[in-house]
Write a structure and sequence with these properties.
The protein has 147 residues and is an all-alpha fold. It has helices spanning 2-29, 37-58, 74-106, 120-144. The radius of gyration is 19 Å and the shape is elongated.
Length: 147
């Protein structure tokens, strides 16, 4: 249920990005530019990209080179996959730590986009939640092993 909702949310965000960009391009060519279209695109791409990371982690669908791993025996392959997940978890945790640091440092800064006034704190929270979800999914996969 949650996964389907996330997929639909990410898909709608991609459709919204397409719509915003199409309207912005048409507006520029018709001499009626759309102010703030780039800010909208940044927010929409963050939402769709962050949700995409969570879904890819959930489905174990990140891009991987398997030339070496496929030649290993089952025990070694399992160990290599867990090591790969562990390195990925370390990377995601570093991203999350940096993002949380920025969020806490700038929380009372009331940052917002210049034209539309989109609050960056909300977008940072979305990014942090999605990074935390990826970290949890990776940790569970390390403990349980791949399916």
């Amino acid at each position: 249920m949650f996964k389907q909702a996330a997929i639909w949310t990410g898909g709608v965000a991609l459709l919204a990005a397409t719509l915003v960009d199409t309207v912005a391009v048409l507006g520029r060519h018709l001499g009626m530019p759309v102010p703030g279209s780039i800010e909208l695109m940044q927010a929409i791409v963050l939402v769709s990209g962050a949700i995409g990371l969570v879904i890819a982690t959930w489905d174990n669908a990140h891009a991987r080179v398997r030339l070496l791993v496929e030649r290993l025996g089952p025990g070694s392959r399992n160990l290599a996959n867990r090591a790969s997940d562990l390195v990925t978890l370390a990377f995601v945790l570093c991203l999350l730590a940096g993002s949380l640091w920025l969020s806490l440092d700038l929380w009372n800064g009331y940052e917002q986009s210049e034209i539309l006034g989109i609050p960056w704190a909300i977008l940072r929270m979305i990014a942090n939640l999605c990074l935390a979800a990826c970290a949890i999914l990776l940790a569970v996969r390390i403990v349980r092993g791949r399916k």
